[in-house]
C-alpha cells in the first residue's frame, strides 16, 4: 500500500484545508499561542490565518497582494509538537488483508493511514511531528521536527510498516508507553493507535501507562482500533474452529455460538472500563471499527472536537 496515493482517494484528503482549519481552531490553536507576551521578537515566517485567532499580527500588505490572510510568526512563538504512537504488534495485523487499500484495511493499515492524514494536516501549519513504533521492543523513534525531509522520512517509515508481513511480536504497551512518556519533555499533542490487547500486564497497570502520557499536561487521543465484526461481535459461523492467539501461539478449539454471549459481555465490559478510565484521565477516546469507512471515522472525530471548542 502506498500511503500517499491511498490518502488521495479519500474524501478526507480532498477536504484537507477545511480539516486543518477545524483542528487548528481548536486544541492546536491554544498551544500555538506564544508564552512571551509583550516581548518584541524577530519575524520568522508567515502562516495561514485561522478563524478565531487574534488579528493583531495579520500581514495586510500581503493580503493586498494575494487576497489571502496570513499572520506573521515570530521566533519566540512556539509551534505545536505532536507525537504519533503506533502499536505494531502481531494482533494489529488482524484481519488478514492481502492488498491493503483505503477500502480494505486491517488495524495496522488504519493506523498508518490515519497517522499520515494527521501529519498532512499538521504539515500545513508547519508543526513538528514525531513518531514512535513499538511491539515487544521499541522499534522506531523520531523526535518532533517540521521539515519536509523529516516528513518524507516518516512517510517512508509508514509505507515500510504497511508493506511488512505480520511477525509474532507480542504487545508490551505498558513498558513502552512509559518509555515514550519519559521522552516527552515538552507539552505535546499525542495520538496513540492500538487495539489495547496485551497479556503481559494487568489492566490497571495498563491504565497507569496511559495516565503517564498525560504527564506535563500533554493532550492525549487514544484511537482504539478493532475489527468489530469478529473482535467485538464474535461473528463466526457455528462450525468447529481453531482460534489461535497470534502473539502467544496458544490455541483453543470451540463452536463460536457456545461462547459468543459471554465473549461479547467481556469485551463490552472492557471497553466501558477503558472509556471510563480515559474520561477520568482526560484522554480523548475514539472507538474505531476498521471495517467502517476510513474518511468517515476521521471526519466524525474532527467534527466532534469542533462541537466542544
From TrEMBL:
This is DUF58 domain-containing protein. InterPro entries: DUF58 (IPR002881), vWFA_dom_sf (IPR036465). It comes from the Bacteria. Residues 47-269 form the DUF58 domain.
Amino acid at each position: 500500500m502506498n500511503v500517499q496515493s491511498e490518502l488521495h482517494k479519500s474524501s478526507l484528503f480532498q477536504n484537507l484545508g477545511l480539516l486543518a482549519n477545524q483542528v487548528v481552531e481548536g486544541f492546536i490553536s491554544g498551544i500555538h499561542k506564544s508564552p512571551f507576551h509583550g516581548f518584541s521578537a524577530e519575524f520568522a515566517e508567515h502562516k495561514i490565518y485561522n478563524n478565531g485567532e487574534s488579528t493583531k499580527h495579520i500581514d495586510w500588505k500581503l493580503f493586498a497582494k494575494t487576497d489571502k490572510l496570513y499572520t506573521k510568526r515570530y521566533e519566540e512563538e512556539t509551534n505545536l509538537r505532536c507525537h504519533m504512537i503506533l502499536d505494531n504488534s502481531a494482533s494489529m495485523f488482524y484481519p488478514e488483508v492481502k492488498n491493503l487499500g483505503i477500502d480494505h484495511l486491517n488495524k495496522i493499515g488504519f493506523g498508518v493511514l490515519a497517522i499520515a492524514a494527521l501529519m498532512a494536516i499538521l504539515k500545513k501549519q508547519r508543526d513538528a511531528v514525531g513518531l514512535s513504533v513499538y511491539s515487544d521492543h521499541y522499534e522506531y523513534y523520531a523526535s518532533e521536527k517540521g521539515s519536509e525531509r523529516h516528513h518524507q522520512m516518516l512517510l517512508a517509515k509508514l509505507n515500510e510498516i504497511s508493506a511488512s508481513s505480520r511477525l509474532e511480536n507480542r504487545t508490551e504497551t505498558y513498558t513502552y508507553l512509559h518509555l515514550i512518556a519519559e521522552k516527552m519533555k515538552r507539552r505535546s499533542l499525542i495520538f496513540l493507535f492500538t487495539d489495547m490487547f496485551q497479556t503481559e500486564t494487568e489492566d490497571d497497570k495498563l491504565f497507569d501507562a496511559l495516565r503517564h502520557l498525560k504527564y506535563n499536561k500533554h493532550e492525549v487521543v487514544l484511537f482504539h482500533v478493532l475489527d468489530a465484526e469478529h473482535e467485538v461481535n464474535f461473528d463466526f459461523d457455528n462450525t468447529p474452529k481453531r482460534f489461535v492467539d497470534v502473539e502467544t501461539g496458544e490455541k483453543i478449539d470451540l463452536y463460536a455460538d457456545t461462547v459468543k454471549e459471554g465473549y461479547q459481555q467481556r469485551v463490552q465490559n472492557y471497553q466501558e472500563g477503558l472509556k471510563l478510565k480515559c474520561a477520568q484521565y482526560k484522554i480523548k477516546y475514539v472507538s474505531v471499527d476498521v471495517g467502517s469507512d476510513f474518511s468517515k471515522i476521521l471526519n466524525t472525530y474532527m467534527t466532534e472536537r469542533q462541537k466542544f471548542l
